[in-house]
Design goal:
alpha+beta, 5-stranded antiparallel beta sheet, 25% helix
C-alpha cells in the first residue's frame, strides 16, 4: 500500500467510523480470504492488518455493505463495492 492508497483507505475508514459502523477486514479483495479483524472500531487496528496481500475487502456492520481495495492501483485503489456501500463514494466527490 503506497501513500496515495493509504490516504484513500484512511478516508474510507474515517467515514465508516463517523457513521457508526464497525469494520471487518477480509485478507483478499474478492472476499474469499481470512477474516483478519472482526467488528473493529479502531482505525489503527484496521490499518495494521491491511496491505499484506494484493487487496482487502472491508465489510461494514449493520448493513453498511462492503468495499474492495486492490493495491498497486494508486488513486484507483478503491475498486468495487456493494450497493449498500454507496456512501463510501462520498470521499471521491
Amino acid at each position: 500500500m503506497n501513500a496515495t492508497e493509504r490516504r484513500i483507505i484512511e478516508s474510507v475508514i474515517d467515514l465508516a467510523l463517523s457513521k457508526g459502523y464497525s469494520i471487518t477486514v477480509i485478507d483478499d479483495f474478492d472476499g474469499c480470504g481470512d477474516k483478519v479483524i472482526v467488528n473493529s472500531t479502531s482505525k489503527a487496528d484496521v490499518l495494521k492488518v491491511m496491505g499484506t496481500t494484493g487487496g482487502d475487502r472491508l465489510y461494514f456492520s449493520n448493513g453498511g455493505g462492503w468495499v474492495s481495495f486492490i493495491y498497486g492501483n494508486d488513486e484507483d485503489v478503491l475498486s468495487n463495492g456493494s450497493a449498500k456501500a454507496e456512501w463510501v463514494w462520498e470521499i471521491i466527490k
